[in-house]
């Protein structure tokens, strides 16, 4: 291998290292967004459960009063 080929290979390796670093950052951001979405979904399920419980109580209350 000539010196020029080695320099080209080093340049390619540096570019690849930069791309890998960029991908790692993107994956970290994606994982953070996924965790946030999971938390939001859990909260929405909790709200739906409370809404369903309140609906059952209202329906039972209306049935007993009438």
Distance between the termini: 94 Å
> How would you sum up the global shape?
rod-shaped
Describe the sheet with the most strands. Answer: none
- Give the amount of beta strand, in percent: under 5%
Task: Tell me how many strands there are.
Answer: 0
User: What's the SSE pattern?
Assistant: H
Report Rg.
28 Å
Give the integer mean of the pLDDT values: 93
Helix/strand-derived category reads mainly alpha
Quaternary status: single chain
Distinct helical segment count:
1
Describe the structure.
With 66 residues, the protein is an all-alpha fold. Helix content is 95%, strand content 0%. The protein is built from 1 helix and no strands. The model has no long low-confidence stretch (mean pLDDT 93).
Summarize the topology.
Layout: H1 3-65
Can you give keywords for this protein?
66 residues; 1 helix; mainly alpha
Concise summary:
With 66 residues, the chain is mostly helical. It is built from 1 helix and no strands.
């Amino acid at each position: 291998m000539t010196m020029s080929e080695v320099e080209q290979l080093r340049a390619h390796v540096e570019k690849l290292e930069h791309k890998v670093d960029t991908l790692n950052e993107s994956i970290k951001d994606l994982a953070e967004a996924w965790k946030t979405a999971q938390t939001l979904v859990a909260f929405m399920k909790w709200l739906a459960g409370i809404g369903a419980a309140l609906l059952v109580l209202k329906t039972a209350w209306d049935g007993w009063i009438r």
